[in-house]
Write a structure and sequence with these properties.
This protein is of the alpha/beta class. It is built from twelve helices and ten strands.
């Protein structure tokens, strides 16, 4: 057995040498700087490029190829107004194309994550829809709902992993938002509420479709959706809505940025390919998903990131010290 393992090791080394010394096309542009040995924090964030300027969101760049998207209406409990529904789509479409970004953290400014839809700002769209008859009013409302759905679907479609860091209240549209994220952390004082039945409607922008998939209990989903009761942090952890709970917001954000840095240290080809395939598999059968990833990886397996990753492992180097090219 030892002899066989030694032979495999020698074979890998020979392959690495051949691949590393073989002619190859140079990377376009400059490679990213190595990640810092210390985990990034909210305090180390700096202003994002000007094209990430929004009314309802604050986007900052964190060392290590991380973007921090903050719901930024603390005086309104981060209620989701007209600008928010439009700007989230613009923001995450840009993030999806941002080759410098490898992970995203979403949080809320102020005392809570979000109080949900801003009814005062949105009332005219919902309560006084445009149209001359039932058909035209219905057509308008369907178009409106579809556009609102894209506000959170764009997070799921974004190939960069998105971490939701939730503190305080996460109500109504907030649940729609976080269920479209890839990973969810929260504080001990956080609570979650599918609030829509209390305002006379069924949730229509993602909660009823994604929450059953996230927590895996249709009975619990039905209870939450029919009653609008609060789900506290401990229950959200035991049900699988969140994967970790922290004592306060400071500890939450530190952990979220540390996780984002860990993800961002890996090959962006590997990480983003993984997210694309995880999302695809959620709505397709196992055979369909296997076929999809075989087609996907027939090109992705040719990346130089594999050689760099294997070489780092053999040399006992950390991936954060490997300068992967932008993607």
């Amino acid at each position: 057995m030892a002899a066989a393992l030694a032979e495999v090791s020698r074979g890998l080394r020979a392959l690495l040498v051949r691949r590393l010394v073989a002619p190859h096309r140079p990377f376009l542009g400059l490679g990213p700087r190595p990640l810092s040995s210390s985990a990034p924090t909210e305090k180390t964030a700096k202003a994002a490029p000007p094209d990430y300027s929004y009314e309802s969101l604050q986007v900052t760049s964190v060392p290590g190829h991380i973007l921090h998207v903050q719901l930024n209406r603390p005086e309104k409990r981060n209620a989701m107004n007209r600008a928010f529904w439009r700007e989230m789509v613009e923001c995450f479409n840009k993030i999806a194309r941002d080759s410098s970004c490898r992970a995203v953290v979403i949080s809320g400014a102020g005392k809570m994550f979000t109080s949900g839809i801003d009814l005062m700002d949105m009332a005219s769209d919902i309560m006084q829809p445009q149209g001359e008859d039932v058909a035209r009013i219905s057509w308008y409302l369907r178009d409106l709902i579809t556009r609102y759905q894209e506000t959170f679907s764009v997070i799921e479609k974004c190939p960069k992993p998105v971490i939701a860091a939730i503190h305080g209240a996460c109500i109504g549209g907030g649940v729609d938002l976080i269920t479209a994220c890839d990973i969810r952390y929260c504080t001990q004082d956080a609570f979650f509420q599918v609030k829509e039945v209390d305002i006379g409607l069924a949730a229509d922008v993602g909660t009823l479709q994604r929450l059953p998939r996230v927590i895996g209990s249709q009975s619990l989903v039905n209870e939450l959706a029919f009653t609008a009761r609060k789900m506290l942090a401990d229950e959200s952890l035991s049900s699988g809505l969140v994967s970790r709970v922290f004592p306060n917001k400071e500890a939450l954000m530190e952990a979220a940025f540390s996780l984002a840095a860990e993800i961002a240290s890996k090959s962006p080809v590997a990480v983003q390919s993984t997210k694309v395939n995880l999302v695809y598999s959620q709505s397709h059968s196992v055979p369909e998903s296997l076929n999809f990833i075989s087609s996907w990886n027939m090109s992705m397996l040719q990346t130089e990131d594999i050689i760099k990753s294997v070489q780092a492992a053999m040399e006992k180097k950390e991936l954060k010290d490997i300068p992967f090219s932008k993607l």
